[in-house]
Amino acid sequence: MTETTTPTKSMDDIMALCKRRGFVYQASEIYGGINGFWDYGPLGAMLKKNLRDAWWTDCVMTGCNGKLGPDGKPVRLVPVDTCIIQNPKVWEASGHVAGFNDPMVDCRESKSRYRADHLKLLRATGEDEGRMFAFIEGDTKGFETALKKLGKYVKRDLGEGDTEVLELVGVDAEVLERVVGPHASETGTLTEPRAFNLMFKTYIGATATEDDVAYLRPETAQGIFTNFKNVVDTMRVKVPFGIAQIGKAFRNEVTPRNFTFRSREFEQMEIEFFCHADDAEAWYAFWRDWRMEWWQSLGLDGDNLILREHDRDELAHYAKEGAGTSDVEYRFPFTAPGFGELEGVAHRTEFDLRQHQEHAKTKLEYFDHERGEIAPNGQPKGERYLPHVIEPSAGLDRGVLAILCEAYTRDESRPSPELMKFHPRLAPIKAGVFPLVKKDGMPEKAAQLHAELSKRFGAHGLIETDEKQSIGKRYARMDEAGCPYCFTIDGETLTDQTVTVRDRDTGSQERIGIDKVPDYLDGKLGL
Ligand code: GAP
């Protein structure tokens, strides 16, 4: 994430709407909350389910919606659902016990804890020996506070070019003595960065000794790798193929922040796609491009979404030198004008399978009948190898957050200016059915249509009905919830069997036959 300028949408407004309309609540709110944990309310749970279902259908069940792979064949994926707690040796083999660390800094004065790589230092230009004021990257208010403190310290107004920003990581202990922490008043209260393992520890069984330690999984991926052989042996799958999983992951983030963006409990949608090393580059390009297209198809199109190839120094421990790692990134209001990661697509090589093969002392090689030298009988002799892996790994909660931010719209020309422009496929409420007034048989007609639509579309979202308040207020409530279409039964319905359809985004209305409503909605929702 980079520095913040004035965002086009206010995160405070988005969070307030999320709370007010039941998308996202603070976890344990009645007890004062718990940092880094969020609950989804009814609309949020449905939105999340719709995004999860879209991924499941488009990636797993239809093999990338029937798109052919670089080999010209259909893309094959199978699902698994593995445990959150695994044998702790899994995390030794994967490198998480030794290497899944963030550098952490504590402030002795304010008792706050920070990710060292998120802290920046502000100092007056040319004052190399002077005080420096730390702020959290991307925190506009924090930056302004640091600037004010620095101005007071140097006793002058600071304009453009009067200040410079340094990284905290890499400064030595002597320099750290001159730093004022983001929430401190004195210098020298920040500790030196130290590694902090992000895995949540727990104990298995009643004795709870160090021998009973286990971890909550920090990624769903390892449950896929440890089952690779099981899937090959039981499913008649042939490399290239993928194994997919959706599930919770847990990371004891040093500084959870930005609403659900960096949480301590979150859900991942991961694919480990196994292929021969020679084909890895082509599959990497395939997945990178298709994953970007997929997010675009759900309404995250335009400038707010980018595909960014990683720099060399960003590569994870498993990523192949020279091979690709890309992120699909979204411009969240709190990262603007920069971007935050939604999904990573990485070439993990054969790293994980090799690690598990060595640690578990179990052969995980794949025998490929279609490769190898050609035998005298004209058939390939076969080749035994550890497949390479392309991993598209998406955050479901981050996806929901991006969808919420993208959908949030203020239209000051409307009596109620806030609306959520969800892609109809994702909208938690698919349609509203309203009697214009509570008499003349309109409620009964509305109830009939409501029942019919609920039966047909209920698997994908709610069909709402409501008789209270003016029709304008009912439309406004639906706009805020992101319901794309409302059908109103009025006086004309009773004579000519037509209803009004109101479009959320334009506010425009048209009339269609009441018997045409289910097919009309079906066409619009594109399910
Ligand atoms: N198996 C690879 C892996 O876990 P990652 O980049 O660490 O890679 C994948 O995580 C995705 O999971 C990220 O792109 C992000 O969307 C999501 N994610 C990671 N940490 C998260 C957190 N603390 N809160 C919410 N989502 C997170």
Explain this structure to me?
The protein is an alpha+beta fold and 527 residues long. It has 3 domains: 266 residues, BirA Bifunctional Protein, domain 2 (2-Layer Sandwich), CATH 3.30.930; 96 residues, no CATH class; 111 residues, Rossmann fold. It contains 15 helices and 27 strands. Strands 3-13-14-20-17-16-15 form a 7-stranded mixed beta sheet. The chain has a 5-stranded mixed beta sheet with strand order 24-23-25-26-27, sandwiched between helices. The protein has a 4-stranded mixed beta sheet with strand order 8-6-7-9, covered by helices on one side. A hairpin with a 7-residue loop joins strand 21 and strand 22. Helix 2 packs across helix 11. The chain is globular, with a radius of gyration of 27 Å. 39% of the residues are buried. The N terminus is likely disordered. The structure holds glycyl-adenosine-5'-phosphate.
